[in-house]
Automatic annotation (TrEMBL):
Top-level taxon in the UniProt lineage: Bacteria
Keywords: Hydrolase
Keyword GTP-binding: no
Name of the protein in its database record: HAD-IA family hydrolase
Length: 253
């Protein structure tokens, strides 16, 4: 079995990006800023990882006249407060199969970790809202936010998590939903399962270990899109172990 499972958060653990978009727009309105990010624009902005970085890129490209007057860290902090309130109110649930796979990993003694560019308060709010107050403690390592200077697609956050886990990259499986997340995990040497999300369904996932609609649950098995294995079913610890063994077999001389 894979020694560790490493999860991205936004779009992977839960479909959160639409909530982030709404929180940004509410924050802009409250601050008296004449900005509104529609879905098409937000899809393009997601090419920049990290909320503060995304906001800075938008200001630089679309509102350079505001560059000297917008306090990006403060604006992002206000957005984070709105987002965490929405999460705490139950605005999202985990994607299909996530809770089941986490339970399987716990029962099998497989450590789970998080590698994300979103801020730690966002992560902890989501985990508490969906897994209970003990949710954050279910993860051996949570790599989030600004713990590393370079955001995805740089592999830094994965390298950080691997160091904390003390497990080689080739022995792990990562879960991502986007091209930039896949690039980060692959650059760190980690085989990656992709579950495309609302804003990443048109991304290019070449190089993924497998691409599936979701991880599946007993009521709604996943739809297999590309990569390892074949057919429908559920992505289980045993499934991942087979896929991981196949990767190792291809690496062996």
């Amino acid at each position: 079995m894979p020694p560790a499972l490493i999860f991205d958060v936004d779009g992977t653990l839960a479909e959160t990006e639409e909530l982030h978009r709404q929180a940004f727009n509410q924050t802009f309105a409250a601050a008296g800023l004449p900005w509104h990010w529609d879905r098409a624009l937000y899809r393009r902005l997601l090419a920049v990882a990290g909320g503060k970085e995304r906001l800075a890129a938008f200001v630089a490209a679309q509102a350079p006249e505001r560059a000297g007057e917008v306090d990006i860290p403060a604006l992002h902090a206000a957005k984070t407060a709105r987002y965490t309130q929405m999460i705490a109110a139950g605005a999202v649930t985990l994607r299909p199969g996530i809770a089941r796979l986490l339970a399987e990993a716990r029962q099998a003694g497989v450590p789970v970790a998080i590698a994300t560019t979103t801020s730690l308060p966002n992560v902890e709010a989501l985990l508490r809202a969906t897994l209970g107050e003990a949710g954050p403690g279910a993860f051996a390592v949570i790599g989030a936010g600004d713990v590393v200077p370079a955001k995805k697609p740089a592999p830094d956050i994965y390298a950080h998590v691997l160091r904390r886990l003390a497990i080689p990259a080739s022995a792990c499986i990562a879960f991502e939903d986007s091209t930039i997340g896949l690039a980060a995990a692959r650059a760190a040497g980690i085989p990656t399962v992709v579950t495309p999300s609302l804003y990443t369904d048109e991304d290019d996932f070449t190089g993924a270990l497998a691409v599936v609609s979701d991880l599946g649950d007993p009521q709604a098995p996943y739809r297999h899109l590309a990569g390892a294995g074949a057919g429908d079913g559920m992505v289980t610890i045993d499934t991942l172990a087979r896929w991981s063994a196949a990767v190792e077999g291809r690496r062996s001389p």
